[in-house]
Amino acid sequence: MKLAKKNVLITGASSGLGRALAMEAAAAGHKLVLVARSLDKLQQLAAELAERFNTDVSVYRADLNASAEWRAVLEEMLQQEQRIDVLINNAGVGYFRYFTETEPGQLDTTMRVNALAGMEAAAAVLPSMLKQQSGHIMMIGSMAGKVATPKAAVYAASKHAVIGFSNGLRQELKPYGICVTTVNLGPMDTNFFDTADPSGRYREASSRYMLAPEQVARKVVASIGKPKREINLPAWMGSGSKLFQLLPGFMEKLLGSQLSKK
């Protein structure tokens, strides 16, 4: 895949990592299709991107927590845009609570936004990718999908689903020239924590190794069109997750206090 002038769909694009991804993709010359709940923020971002990078930007308002609405928007989007070359499933939500304190609505929202909505987006864009025998699906996962921690059982489950889905889909699509990449991230300095951790304790405890959205966006956009299985950031967390999978009991004992910072 050539990098220029690909139709790139980014969900959760109005702020945080989604906004940084839009900036980086526009700078690389791609045409953008941006989705978020806030139409005002999307329109402001589109105007900024058009002015700075002279790029085409389409915006669509959608609540990914509402399946029927999201599927209708996807159908409308594909009619308007004709095809999507790159899908970056970035939208996500989390609530750092013990499972016994998690409300049913929070459970449903976490699994729906983080996992199911991304699968629905992939199902929508794949027919055109299969027809053109090329494309790239990039799923924003999390280190939590590899190493679950207290007060994040539901969030970890949703991201584990993202990783599992991506691993299976990658094998299915390899014969058709379509790449599937998971982007597994540690703590990142975005407004995600406004909902996940209103107390601010976890953000403060993780401040030393917080990722910058711009840093992640550069890595992700630079990987478009490349058959990368995973992008793991920070790298030392990616290495640690491999050790954790080999020796889970030992690592839980060794890192007990570190895993309980939420």
Automatic annotation (TrEMBL):
Highest taxon of source: Bacteria
One Pfam family from the record: adh_short
Signal peptide, first to last residue: none
UniProt keyword Oxidoreductase, yes or no: yes
GO CC aspect terms: membrane
One GO molecular-function entry: oxidoreductase activity
Family annotation (SUPFAM superfamilies): NAD(P)-binding Rossmann-fold domains
InterPro entries, per database record: KR_dom, NAD(P)-bd_dom_sf, Sc_DH/Rdtase_CS, SDR_fam
Domain Ketoreductase: 6-191
UniProt keywords, alphabetically: Oxidoreductase
UniProt similarity note: Belongs to the short-chain dehydrogenases/reductases (SDR) family.
Protein name per the record: Ketoreductase domain-containing protein
